[in-house]
Amino acid sequence: MIRMLMILSMDVMILYMIVPFILTRICGWGVLSKGKAAKGIAFTFDDGPHPNYTPEVLDLLKEQGVKGTFFVLGSKAEKYPELIQRMHREGHQIGIHNYVHISNWFLFPWTNRREQADRTANIVERLTGERPIFYRPPWGLLNLGDLLLMRKSYRIVLWSVMVGDWKPAVSVEQLKRTLLKRIKPGSIIVLHDSGDTLGADEEAPRHMITGLREVLKEIRSKGLDCLRADELLNKETRCRREVGARTKQPGQIHS
Predict the structure, then answer these.
(1) 229, 189 in Cβ contact below 8 A?
(2) Spatial contact of 136 and 158, defined as CB atoms under 8 Å apart
(3) Cα–Cα 20 to 30 A to 67, which of 9, 86, 126, 255?
(4) Per-residue model confidence (pLDDT) at position 245
């Protein structure tokens, strides 16, 4: 009897966790991890907002004329609403990254959607007037229920370039070198504007920002355009924003 229960438990775990991992992370089914723009790439930032590092990232993006995508935690959005509003005001895309940074493998599907994704989307919508539709699960891990329920309301966005910028062992020079080597047209790059999640180094975002500054200076020489994730993945959205930029009046702020 015990042996049968153990086998059943293993089967359930494989179905609930491992099968979605194979489908999404290996096969790319049901998720978005790369755009089709000829010269576009998207820088995305997870785990924030952070009161120290997120303003520095926003300052850098503004200085370089770059729009990014921030996958935010709902608990931090509640704590630092002014940073969410600044992201929106300055034209960046805001996606959701659960209410707290916990793996979906340890959550029931209905609990995850209601208490993590929808709760965070409600917070962002209340602060900005715009409801996020892009979702990135912590560590990129989905359960079987996410594939059935989450995809009905959200576009699940993973990445094509990850460089371990949360690790203390990754130097600024290594970060820069790896990013420039791996970034290609269509790349979705994941970076982190907070270092207070499990396994991360608290000071790592400072190195990331320094390295990103150098990378952004060289990106233009490669003829690549830094876009929001929705612009990279959605031609219609991209065209609409380009038209808006051409018709923008002096003194207006478009977001």
Answers:
(1) no
(2) yes
(3) 126
(4) 43
Catalytic residue among 88, 97, 101, 192: 192
Active site residue 97: no
| Measured distance CA(228)–CA(226) in Å, rounded | 7
First to last CA, the chain: 60
Tokens of 144: 């079987």
Catalytic residue check, 192: yes
For residues 52 and 179, the answer to whether their CB atoms sit within 8 Å is: no
pLDDT tens-digit series, residues 90-147: 999 999 999 999 999 888 877 888 899 999 999 999 999 999 999 999 999 999 888 8
pLDDT tens for residues 25-36? 889 999 999 998
Q: Are 73 and 101 in contact (CB under 8 A)?
A: yes
Instruction: From the candidates 46, 118, 165, 225, give the one annotated as an active-site residue.
Output: 46
